[in-house]
Amino acid sequence: MPVKQTQSELKKSVYRRPQELLDAQTHYCPGCGHGIMHRLLAEVIGELGIRERAIGIAPVGCAVLAYDYIDIDWSEAAHGRCPAVATGLKRVHPDKVVFTYQGDGDLASIGMAETIHVANRGELITIVFINNTVYGMTQGQMAPTTLLNQKTTTTPRGRDPSSEGYPIKVCELLDQLVAPALLARTTVATPRHVRRTKALLRKAFRYQIDGVGFSLIEVLSPCPTYWRMTPADSYRYAEEVVAKTFPLGVIRDVRENE
Q1: Residues 10-19: pLDDT tens digits?
Q2: Averaged pLDDT score across all residues of the chain
Q3: Domain parsing of the chain, residue ranges
Q4: Would you tell me how many other CB atoms lie within 10 Å of the CB of residue 63?
Q5: Is-contact 44 97, C-beta < 8 A?
Q6: Interatomic CA distance for residues 176 and 120, integer angstroms
Q7: Structure pTM?
Q8: Which of 114, 216, 246, 251 ranks highest by number of CB atoms within 10 Å?
Q9: How far apart are alpha carbons 55 and 112 in whole angstroms?
């Protein structure tokens, strides 16, 4: 016979909002992965005890309002320039923990030069790269990461490599450089992957705190609105389809064998 819980036991909180996560109503679409990522970042920042040292750089795109959710210091950057702003802040304030939070358009299109050069210099910052394969803020146009044959508002017949090229794999691209310390790709499609994502975020911040080097964590995140799917279907799609083009895993970890 199952033990019947008392009313007080049922009311007991077992999963609290972290202090670093503001009590704000979300503006994201139902099923969007940004909400999960904001919570994970808040949890990691709190657990590492770096709230007073952390500085986030907000992008242009869906996550431009990240500073409305995570209660730390933030700076706004022009479109694609988050890594450049982060570099300046980290060099002036080397004691701070500086990270960028960018989408695929901000990081891999207009900001590709900044991304490559900051990684090539091995700047002691952390980049959190949200890859949902479309431009979410501007009505779902093709992104650098849009899958082959994926339909968007600018590829209504599907992405054709003969005219639009191939999806850009940022982690593999940066893996050609000498300086990066940690390059990894994960997703928030399942609880297991959410736990893995949190562990990678923690490691990336630790590498910055310990002076190990530059880190980029790429996160495959669902966009139900512009994938034209239900939230549940979009999470399955991220894991079963998007991850075929962008394989999950650690691409480089300089401390893997230590």
Answers
A1: 567 677 888 9
A2: 93
A3: 26-252
A4: 25
A5: no
A6: 9
A7: 0.93
A8: 216
A9: 22
Look at domain 26-252 and name its CATH class. Answer: alpha beta
Does position 113 have pLDDT exceeding 60, yes or no?
yes
SS (H, E, C) the chain: CCCCCCHHHHHCCCCCCCCCECCCCCCCCCCCCHHHHHHHHHHHHHHHCCCCCEEEEECCCHHHHHHHCECCEEEECCCCCHHHHHHHHHHHCCCCEEEEEEEHHHHHCCCHHHHHHHHHHCCCCEEEEEECCEECCCCCEECCCCCCCCCCCCCCCCCCHHHHCCCCCHHHHHCCCCCCCEEEEEECCCHHHHHHHHHHHHHHHHHHHCCCCCEEEEEECCCHHHHCCCHHHHHHHHHHHHHHHCCCEEEEECCCCC
Distance of CA 226 to the CA centre of its chain: 18
Whole-angstrom CA distances from 63 to 35, 40, 142 are 10, 15, 18
167-219: pLDDT as tens digits: 999 999 999 999 999 999 999 999 999 999 999 999 999 999 999 999 999 99
